[in-house]
Amino acid sequence: MQQPMLVLKNNTKRESGRKVQLSNIKAAKTISDIIRTCLGPKAMLKMLMDPMGGIVMTNDGNAILREIQVQHPAAKSMIEISRTQDEEVGDGTTSVIILAGELLKVAEPFLVDNMHPTVIIAAYRQALEDAVSMMRNEVAKPVDTDNREEMVKIIKSSLGTKFMKGWNDLACGIALDAVKCVRINDQSAGGYNEIDIKRYAKVEKVPGGSIEMSEILDGVMFNKDVTHTGMKRRIENPRIVMLDCNLEYKKGESQTNMEFMQETDFRKILQLEENYIKDICDDIIALKPDLVLTEKGVSDLAQHFLLKAGITAVRRLRKSDMNRVARAVGGQIVHRTEELKDSDVGTECGLFEVKKFGDEYFTFLTKCKNPKACTILLRGASKDVLMEVERNLLDAMNVARNVMIDPFLVPGGGAVEAAVAHRLIEKSKEIQGVGQWPYRALAEALRIIPKTLMQNCGVNTIRTMTNLTAKHATTGSTWGVDGETGNIVDMEDFGVWDTLQVKSQVFKTAIETAILLLRIDDIVSGVKKQSDIDAEKMAGKFQAANPQEGPEE
Length: 553
Known about the structure:
The protein is an alpha+beta fold. 49% of the residues lie in helices and 16% in strands.
């Protein structure tokens, strides 16, 4: 008899064929079931503890999955798509996981019936192309981004499922103003359109007060105080100099030794240091600024010279804060004091003041004329509340940004999924061959979004779903689910709209992930070292030698 040939090492685990595909589908379904209750206005919150003992309370799909530790490779890729969705468009993180899980679930019967995965994949690809084009050409409607009421309505539908829905008007106003503030729309440079929320719309969380006290500043703020107690803490229309250099004596790069022959030489060195600091302070004072901001340190001597000249100094600002200040007050960040020019001075700020919240001092630069950066000041009862409010606001700002970049809307409340599903089922009748069935199954899978909304409201899912399907077949494509009551309503009148960009991204990401996981037919995991395996075997032998006695009856 021939000796079996071993190619892989002993400590390598290998699974292949149908078993792998079915285990991948099971893992994806498990992940999607975890956050199924987090969809819609009646969404439940999840409470998670991280390894350091901190807690996270949220219903944001991405925030939940980020904290979960998983072992299965397919589950890891599901978590990855939620992150991709968050980075790309900032909303729809829960929908994308639920949809991807359902797409794999409907593929399972075909695999069991020995249909080849590539046939299913080809049908899914075709359905994805058709779904995206149907959404843009048949279901979407254009929107006027200058109409404030329309824009607030769109942002409200995103915030309606979040913790912030009790303060909807406040949050929508803040999000819309922040995005309009940081938007740069330069028609002269070939229609250059930039909205960088991450870098230029900073959210500053200050515990204390109530959520109603949150506001958006027409300028910036940061957690710093003036360097000397004698300096002014309030200046109107200040001239601001921004520096990226030390206002102190330069130390040698490496260790420096000096030998003095006379004691007067030491005095000369001290005098040189003093003269150097006086020179750099004179360079600054020559421009007659009221406020100096620097990313580096300010020595006591420099503080003395600046105080004598009536100048306020703030030191050790973060690079990101300094960039925001430069965009808000005009002017340039300068790297050497000798190069300071009058055009580098920021003059567009209306008020500089230092305020105290709790034990901390905060510097405010507000009433800016045309700021291209802003700070959102959040107040709230506790740190956990503030973290959740910040996540909700970032979602809202992303929705506003998406509409401004691609001004098209689709009806919300599961209406767009039901509309696309109806059209795909009609189209599947024209498809020849066996590919018709996976194509049709994908269309049915899209209905999981309205179905989940109904389940989270606690209504009769089958009856309501049948009504919704009938409405789409007879009347129009704007019928969806009211997430509060579970009734079927016309989204045109109800006023819940989603952005086309988010929905297209949800479809693309979910279907492409399902395709990716269906393609896998072999998993080789050689993760364990031989020493770990030996240790496990020893532990197994030890347990076998000392079996624990069961509880007595």
